[in-house]
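Researcher: Please predict.
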Amino acid sequence: MIRNKTAVIGLGNYLLADEGVGMHAVEILRKRDYSGGVDFVDAGTPGMNLLHQFEQRERIIFIDSGECGLKPGKYARFKPEEVVSLKKTKNYSLHEFDLISFIEKADELGATKNTNIIVYCMQAGEIKMSRELSSDVQKGLPGMVDEIFSEIEGELTNA
């Protein structure tokens, strides 16, 4: 399977309101007119099954919701080594998935070698049974998508 060197991976659950923001963002980005060279992946809640996404990648941008310490609808952009996960996980299952802990484990396994990883974390406002994003996340999503799009385009045109 031939892959693009860059992947944008949306994480979360469409059925839990703001928990699905990563997949909503990937859906919007897929519709944009970009210069190509990017795989957009709607990964859902994959747990350790996400490991295979590192194969043949030079760059991965993860988009997820989480407890970022921000107001709902605000987002942070960071590299995994710039943060520490406060979530305590016993397993690497889809029920206890923690992106930062997963990346640390993937690094221990050598999967992240030569891969530049960026994370966009949107602060969730509502996690409940709903396919609709909260109003705060709906307002914040376009700005985050625009920044990710600019980052992708800048990387591809400067390559």
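Model: Strands lie at 6-11, 38-44, 59-66, 75-78, 116-123.
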